[in-house]
Design a protein that fits this description.
Layout: H1 2-16, H2 19-31, H3 33-40, H4 44-74, H5 82-106, H6 108-115, H7 118-130, H8 136-152, H9 165-189, H10 196-216, H11 226-251, H12 256-263, H13 265-278, H14 284-303, H15 308-312
Amino acid sequence: MTTSASPRTSTAVRRQVDPRLLAVAGSLCIALSPILIALSGASPGTATVFRCLLALPVLVPMALLERRRLRPVAGEMPAGRPWLVVVGGLLLGLDMTLWTGAIHAVGAGVSTVLVNVQVVILPLLAFLVLGERVRLSFLLAVPVMLGGVALASGLAGGGGGAADPVTGTVLALLAAFAYAGYLLFLRLGSAPGQRSGPVTLATAAAAVSSFVLGSLWEGVDLTPGWTAIGWLALLALIGQCMGWVLIAGGMAKLPSSTGASILLLQPVGAVLLGMLVLGQFPTVWQLIGCAVVIAAVAFAARTRAEPAPADASSS
């Protein structure tokens, strides 16, 4: 008797939480990621490998609890395609490693703006792979977005305090393509109702691909020091576990236009936090470029009709 009442109560409590608040909280968690990466001082491969490995002890129990929760509802586990999730996870490892390199090169805020170009890349991939319709408004937003990317990269007015704005821009855009691929494969491979399970599997696969890429790039330091491990553990908890699960839980219940708009809090928050915490002040042109990118992505995301799960699993 007590056992049957308890799940109903917890379900009722979950339903009372506004999904927009969950998505906003998740976006703000992810906005902290580039700050924590920069504070760790770790190389791209090192930061990504530890981010994934330190997140798994939290994600695995969440996945097991989700498995137990879904089994009584369906009578058996809903069918998915785990190999597609693994492919997506390998792309996620590439995304996070390249993005970390972009953070070092162009700064936390600008790199986060650029990597969120995935919100526009994803519809193009969905069109090529799934045959989903691409609206005229999407095509109109692309040249505006590319102009904003050029400004944000520091091509006008210098790169500000960025170490290498052009290289950072290239890395961030490559990361955006990998990120969009991750979202697409996660969407194709996840079963209905699954959130933590696919994220856990993708995180394990990301640890593998980030180790390979990091080893070939700047190396992976398996003993980065306790200070770096502390920042990376905080990154794993806030950016990898809390952020992704909150966003997945909130955006699954939101229209895609609302959810995609909320995701744009990530680059805005990262730019502001980069200025406040790290003293990374972009030039006026870079700030204008960031604003243009955000506006173009918001326009494209607001007008396209995508299922929520494609955006729900984002970084």
